[in-house]
Write a structure and sequence with these properties.
Elements (H helix, E strand, L loop, with lengths): L16 H10 L6 H5 L3 H28 L8 H27 L7 H22 L4 H13 L6 H39 L3 H4 L2 H7 L3 H18 L5 E5 L5 E2 L3 E5 L12 E6 L8 H8 L3 E5 L2 H8 L6 E6 L4 E6 L8 E2 L4 H5 L19 E2 L10 H8 L14 E3 L3 H6 L5 H11 L6 H11 L6 H14 L10 H13 L4 H9 L11 E3 L10
Parallel strand pairs: 3-4, 4-5
Antiparallel strand pairs: 1-5, 2-8, 6-7, 9-10, 10-11
Helix pairs in contact: 1-3, 3-4, 3-5, 4-5, 4-10, 5-6, 5-10, 6-7, 7-9, 7-10, 16-17, 17-19
Length: 527
């Protein structure tokens, strides 16, 4: 390896033999997803629990030094804090890597043992959030409840664990609201002062919440909730807050099989009943709270099926048990079917609203351009912002080389003779108003078959060379690169993009796509 070796002296009072032993126990194992996936059922849950326990043992060993501050760390508090932050990130990564396994382990033949392991895992994650959070009194009390529950006999142990989970759900929701209240007004004000769109600044605090240590904890609670509610003999309905394509003219409650977490809440919806509980910090749950929309989950398939039989009828929802559970009942009378057809482009144009307009850019005549040719007529804001960073960064921060397929290049490729059949198919499918998710998927699939001509490929290579991008056409291959380019173009027809355009009163066919091309730095994990 080139370069000079860097030797950092050990931190006095912290770099002990005990800490070395604890670190050696986690270095070969942290983030070892393959090892977790080799086990199923209780074995996999136990292995995930053991990995997080090893990480938390190191955090506990660092706590006394952190509490004493600089004096306890030999004036090296920053170094110890960075190590603790890295361990917090490792806990998060370990839990996130195990989530898919934990979600599929619910059919274990040892439900009590598995539920106990899940409770212990949630308790460890609560402890990790406690060590990271400033105001953690409520979290500490919740942690004590989880720990005390496992010393009780059934069914009291599950009732107390369920009570702790409900308390934790409320605290995570409150944590999300505190982040939003503390960060979003400043983000919005800065965005307005800088002339940024609300689309980019409006989700700033939401992304901070999703990037916090509490995010995987919320997902774990969602995995644990149905098992605890069943063992504790509680109601199958659970309140998650006080998601896309359809508009509703009257107050409407939706019954859905699954909330993925990325959905937008349709206009006119006042409540969403889901057969599967999302985590309370997912995008959909945060948006539901911000919009005062009731989002609830039910773990009982029979009760969900019964509610499904009330389609197009008036339903009454009542919050019970301290607003953490929900009673669903059929109200008197019958409502007319409230689903209305989504507004098409012509309807929107004639609705009388002052609609925003998208400035249409003309194609510059080049399929690919170097960063020197970036301007508002050829590329979007992300590409322009990379250009503005030139000369503004310190010497030790490298700015990646950039090239782009500009606005209008997609439309030009679509009109080439070899793509005539695809263009006709896209036009036919895109004419459906409103298009169904299956139709949008069909458009995206059709666009993946676009064929470039030799001129396009040559111009891409030339633009890369002019921008300093080292690419000889082999790594990645041209086929892989073209597949990525068409995937970006096809993303114009995803459900969320189509829905957002319509909600904003914009016509979907006016949306133009440019493709920014930059090198990806391979991430390496040191063991």
């Amino acid at each position: 390896m080139k370069g000079k070796a860097i030797r950092v002296p050990p931190v006095p009072g912290v770099a002990t033999a005990q800490l070395k032993t604890l670190l050696e126990a986690i270095l070969p194992k942290a983030g070892d997803v393959a090892a977790v996936e080799r086990h199923e059922g209780v074995g996999g849950v136990t292995q995930a629990l053991q990995e997080v326990e090893r990480l938390m043992a190191v955090r506990r060993a660092l706590l006394p030094a952190l509490v004493r501050g600089s004096q306890g760390c030999g004036e090296r508090l920053r170094d110890v804090l960075y190590l603790d932050l890295a361990l917090d990130g490792a806990v998060r990564s370990s839990v996130e890597a195990s989530l898919s396994l934990l979600k599929t382990a619910s059919s274990s033949e040892e439900p009590e043992t598995q539920a106990g392991c899940l409770v212990d895992l949630v308790a460890l994650c609560v402890e990790s959030v406690c060590l990271t959070s400033g105001s953690n009194v409520e979290l500490v009390m919740i942690l004590r409840d989880y720990q005390a529950s496992q010393a009780l006999d059934s069914p009291m142990k599950w009732l107390r664990a369920q009570a702790a989970s409900e308390r934790l759900t409320r605290e995570l929701g409150a944590l999300s609201e505190r982040y939003l209240a503390a960060l979003q007004p400043t983000a919005t004000a800065l965005g307005d002062a800088l002339g940024l769109s609300l689309e980019s600044t409006g989700i700033f605090a939401e992304e901070v919440v999703r990037g916090s240590s509490a995010a995987p904890l919320a997902q774990l609670v969602a995995v644990l909730a149905p098992e605890l509610r069943q063992m504790a003999g509680m109601s199958s309905w659970e309140a998650l807050s006080e998601v896309q394509e359809t508009h509703f003219q009257e107050p409407t409650i939706l019954l859905v099989q699954h909330v993925g977490g990325e959905e937008d809440i349709p206009e006119g919806v006042v409540g969403v009943l889901s057969a599967v509980a999302p985590d309370v910090l997912c995008h959909a749950a945060v948006r539901a709270r911000n919009s005062s929309v009731l989002l609830v989950a039910c773990s009982d398939a029979e009760e969900t099926a019964a509610v499904a039989g009330w389609q197009d009828q008036q339903v009454q929802l009542q919050l019970t048990q301290g607003k953490t559970a929900v009673e669903v009942s059929l109200a008197q009378g019958r409502a007319d079917a409230s689903t209305s057809a989504s507004l098409g482009d012509d309807a929107v144009a004639n609705s009388g609203r002052n609609l925003p307009q998208i400035r249409q850019r003309k194609w510059c005549g080049q399929y690919a351009i170097s960063s020197n040719a970036f301007d508002e007529d050829t590329v979007g804001s992300k590409s322009l912002n990379t250009l503005k960073l030139r000369g503004q960064l310190p010497v030790w921060v490298n700015l990646p080389c950039s090239a782009a397929l500009p606005f209008g290049a997609f439309e030009a490729v679509l009109q080439q003779p070899q793509n005539a059949a695809i263009a006709a198919a896209v036009q036919k499918l895109d004419a459906e108003q409103p298009p169904s998710p299956d139709q949008l998927q069909a458009v995206r699939a059709a666009l993946q078959a676009l064929q470039p001509d030799a001129q396009l490929q040559n111009q891409v290579k030339a633009a890369f060379q002019q921008s300093g991008l080292q690419w000889d056409g082999s790594n990645p291959s041209w086929q892989d690169m073209w597949r990525a380019i068409t995937a970006v173009w096809a993303s114009k027809w995803n459900v969320r993009a189509h829905s957002s355009m319509r909600k904003a009163g914009l016509q979907h066919h006016h949306l133009q796509m440019a493709v920014l091309c930059q090198p990806v730095i391979p991430a390496q994990q040191r063991r």
